[in-house]
Design brief:
By secondary structure, the chain is mainly α. The chain is built from 15 helices and three strands.
Length: 366
């Protein structure tokens, strides 16, 4: 029998925000794959609808168990994620210079997306167990660093620097939330600055360095590396205040805008709905983020609080990086916009995270 308190504490507001973002995503995706294209990619829209159905089902499944079970099985979840990352390096599908996908019949799964959840869960378990008012020292951060570094390096090996960097940002956000000793924080920041130059020459691949240089000056290669960002900025700027209208975006319709259904889908929305439409979407994301942070603040369980903070950090950083990327404020790193960009694995991961947030919200007073 279902405990009535679960229905009392069910977060209808978060669910409404999720459906609102999902609706905006489907409308924008329809335009991105159908507007003025000689051969409409209707199949992509249909696939995204199917993924939303799968994501909604998984989200509901996440409500059936107590989220605290994830603390008990955190190492099992983490180990399974590492196993998938190793699997993809050996038998994964090779597309566009990267080996990121595992083919399971008609479905392609991207393990690096699921690795984000695994890292959040394992870090939340560790921090909840050892958190203290003094903050974590360099020695006590050894386990979090190693558990983050292993999937980070495996994802870089694919290569997928965008997702690997996102995992690093999530881990950093969670670590700062639980507090670090000032001396330890100073050492980490100093070490990061000292490592910047060696990483540039020995860690980054040539195409990754080109992305950074193109970010600094897109006009250095307007028909090559700088083409994406130049066309994206043209699309966003041409939307003016209210946009050109649904299915009327010329950069999208004439196929000037590359990757318009994935990484650059925000440019499609901005061109068709203008500054007002883009501002409304950003505002909805802000409401979603503050709503999720309120769930973390209201939770009485340390594991639930830190878990909610990690999930919020993941969605927030993805939105910031993607929108900053298409506006030319950040290098192009291939990070999708949550709920909006096409992609089954990314959408599934996001819906799982929403399910966990709803789970925490239902049980935050118990």
């Amino acid at each position: 029998m279902v405990d009535r308190r679960y229905l009392t504490y069910f977060d209808w507001g978060l669910l409404a925000l999720t459906f609102l973002l999902a609706t905006i995503g489907l409308i924008t995706l329809y335009s991105a794959v159908m507007a003025g294209v000689p051969t409409p990619q209707e199949a992509l829209f249909t696939k995204q609808l199917i993924w939303y159905g799968i994501g909604l089902t998984v989200m509901l499944v996440c409500l059936l168990f107590n989220y605290k079970l994830m603390e008990r099985y955190a190492w099992f979840i983490y180990s399974g994620s590492i196993g998938l990352l190793l699997w993809v390096l050996f038998v994964g599908r090779y597309i566009g210079g990267s080996r990121r996908w595992i083919v399971l019949g008609p479905v392609s799964l991207q393990p690096s997306e699921l690795a984000k959840i695994a890292v959040i869960i394992i870090l939340a378990r560790y921090y909840a167990k050892y958190v203290s008012g003094r903050g974590f020292t360099l020695r006590s951060l050894q386990v979090p660093v190693i558990t983050t570094l292993v999937p980070f390096l495996l994802i870089v090996r694919q290569p997928d620097l965008g997702t690997a960097g996102l995992i690093g940002l999530i881990a950093a956000s969670m670590t700062l939330f639980v507090k670090i000793e000032k001396r330890t924080l100073s050492f980490i920041v100093g070490s990061g600055i000292a490592m910047a130059l060696p990483m540039w020459f020995f860690f980054l691949k040539e195409y990754q360095r080109q992305r950074v240089l193109t970010f600094i000056n897109p006009d250095r290669d307007p028909l090559g590396a700088g083409y994406h960002i130049i066309q994206s900025k043209i699309a966003i700027g041409s939307g003016y205040l209210t946009g050109k209208g649904f299915l009327e975006g010329t950069q999208n319709a004439l196929s000037f805008l590359p990757e318009q259904h994935t990484d650059f889908i925000f440019s499609v929305l901005a061109e068709e709905w203008g500054f007002m439409g883009a501002a409304i979407l950003i505002f909805i994301f802000l409401v979603f983020i503050f709503w999720a942070l309120n769930i973390a603040y209201s939770c009485r369980d340390p594991f639930g609080t830190i878990l909610a903070v990690g999930i919020t950090a993941m969605i927030a950083w993805q939105a910031v990086i993607n929108i900053g990327m298409v506006m030319g404020l950040m290098p192009v790193v291939g990070v999708p916009l949550p709920f909006i960009s096409y992609g089954g694995s990314s959408l599934l991961t996001t819906m799982i995270c929403v399910g966990i947030l709803l789970n925490i919200s239902m049980r935050r007073f118990m």
